[in-house]
Amino acid sequence: MSVELKTERLILRPFAEADLEAFAAINADPEVMRYIGDGKPRDREATREGIVKSRRAWDEQGWGTFAVVETDTSDLVGFAALAVPNFLPEILPVVEVGWRIARDRWGKGYAPEAARAAIGFAFNDIGMTRLVSCIHRDNTASIRVAEKLGMTLERETTVPEVNVPCKVYELNR
Ligand SMILES: CC(C)(COP(=O)(O)OP(=O)(O)OC[C@H]1O[C@@H](n2cnc3c(N)ncnc32)[C@H](O)[C@@H]1OP(=O)(O)O)[C@@H](O)C(=O)NCCC(=O)NCCS
Prior knowledge:
- With 173 residues, the protein is an alpha+beta fold.
- Helix content is 32%, strand content 29%.
- Strand 7 and strand 8 form a beta hairpin.
């Protein structure tokens, strides 16, 4: 897949195997992973599996998770994801837009900047008409990102596997 999106400060493109070191470092940070899944940092092997899965999604569907690269430095600084939230069966079928940014780049508006590009791709290039984001109830930074994107609260529920309270935000094309 040769999709590449450019924003003012970022480049979005599918993950490559060469992203493993940088992405594993982001996923090993407990502060980054605090409100994701079971709240535990992810080891290098789990990150490697995540990259493989994401590359397969691009190959099979023509869309998936974008690696987010800082244009000025060429550093991998996070992701903007398009993925099916299988962990929350009650809202399926739907596609989730997600975001994760390295801690040393927080507060620069990178997540909304990257997510805006991924959402534009989903709506304009793929033809999706609705996206959701599932966010831990206490993840105020991520809730702010959803608000900046113009998403609205659709429901509050619990992620069954991990028994975690989450808010579902939605955005229609
Ligand atoms: C949520 C996240 C992606 C936001 O990314 P970002 O690029 O920093 O987004 P923004 O710069 O727009 O900041 C969003 C909010 O984060 C908070 N924030 C900003 N800088 C911060 C910092 N240094 N430390 C903690 N929170 C901070 C603020 O509440 C901010 O809202 P504001 O702009 O109205 O003040 C980022 O905090 C992150 O990667 N968190 C861990 C992964 C995660 O939880 N992802 C979402 C899962 S649903």
